[in-house]
């Protein structure tokens, strides 16, 4: 039975509602994401308590969120509060007011808990197993070093975009000396964590609104596709250029910057400054933007309540399984096609010359090759391409994701290479040699899919004999497989063009 869970995140800058639908098999799908700027942290400047005005705004927003949850038939609401509420001298008064008006008991996370849930959201969704996370909030900043997806060190301090903006007046145009003064102050903060100095070989994985804005600005200025924040990679030089560009403008001028929302124009320099200062202090060269963080960390804890450490065994395979269930794919067919495709790949290694990365791409593509059928069987190759490039498929780089999408779509004989030029370097992640990989993996997948054309496993496994002028595929069958052989052989002409060998398929009875 499907159920819906909501997470209300009462942050220092905004309050956010995320609603997720959880399917019978444990798959999940986000169905709502809405936020309202409340700026709780602004009320705490100079040690003041939360003002009646900001508390009222927050309470009214949360009441609206609760009403939306009721309309969406949400069974469980998980309400949490972070830095501003944690630091407020009138915290108890605020929590009591929230309980009375909304009926929700907000859990106030400690700095360490905030860091942990952010890390958990990252560890279960990004494509790297080692790194340093930074979660830039309105009222605090959390950092975590992880190796093999396990926390090694962590830290947090009560300084975020709102308080930093007030301290250095970064909502206005800054001179170079003012910017350097802010960065020197921030490097001193990060210097309190000497383990950052020994982690420079790792990527920084950033989360939070400032990071999402930073990644979006960089994509817009480069004309980059896919337009996807999660797993988007930037260099330290990219971050520096954007920081210096934004710092030279006032908040009004920043409104014209493509990718920057109006509500962040005053605090964006502080947010980007925090990230850049940490990259300077630790000598980090790479920043990976994460579209998930604290809220998804809480979701994973909810999904795996009995796990001491709710880490999925494999980010990629968990994400694939989630997509297969959500889109209602024929799992038996998909897995059998995948087994056949990987067997062909392994036996034809001397023919195609590819290694583990290509094999992993073929694994993903073969499991998801029918994703678009649920929209419409006709043109399902194009629907598959669209869904894979726009769904939350985790555990891959952008380049790998795009290649997977085109390989999956290429299993269908009529597939046209729509839009692939948009993803080519320098504006996109694809390299010229990737086109050849897509074609070759696509033809292997087309053969494998043909060998299970009726989805009845008529062909149980294959044995390949590679000769200088041809490849003979001995297809073990347990019943008549004329249709399967015919569909697989429809790829023969293209196979010969790509591999300079003829394709022959011979059925062998068990």
Architecture overview:
- The protein is an alpha/beta fold and 510 residues long.
- Helices cover 45% and strands 18% of the residues.
- The protein has 20 helices and 14 strands.
- Strand 1 and strand 2 form a beta hairpin.
Structure described in brief:
With 510 residues, the protein is an alpha/beta fold.
Largest sheet: 6 strands, mixed
**Total helical elements:** 20
- The averaged pLDDT comes out at 95
CATH architecture of the largest domain: 2-Layer Sandwich
Domain count: the total is: 3
Radius of gyration: 26 Å
Total count of strands: 14
Distance between the termini: 42 Å
Helix content: 40-55%
Annotated CATH homologous superfamily of the largest domain: Exopolyphosphatase. Domain 2
Write down the overall geometry: elongated
CATH class of the largest domain: Alpha Beta
Structural class: alpha/beta
The parts where pLDDT drops under 50 for at least 5 residues are none
CATH topology of the largest domain: Nucleotidyltransferase, domain 5
SSE diagram, text form:
Layout: E1 3-10, E2 14-22, E3 28-37, H1 52-71, E4 76-81, H2 83-87, H3 91-102, E5 107-108, H4 111-123, E6 131-136, E7 141-147, E8 150-157, H5 161-168, H6 176-190, E9 204-207, H7 209-222, E10 232-235, H8 236-247, H9 251-254, H10 268-282, E11 286-289, H11 294-303, H12 315-326, H13 331-347, H14 349-352, H15 356-367, H16 380-390, H17 398-409, H18 432-450, E12 459-466, E13 470-477, H19 482-489, H20 492-499, E14 502-509
Parallel strand pairs: 1-4, 4-5, 6-9, 9-11, 13-14
Antiparallel strand pairs: 1-2, 2-3, 6-7, 7-8, 10-11, 12-13
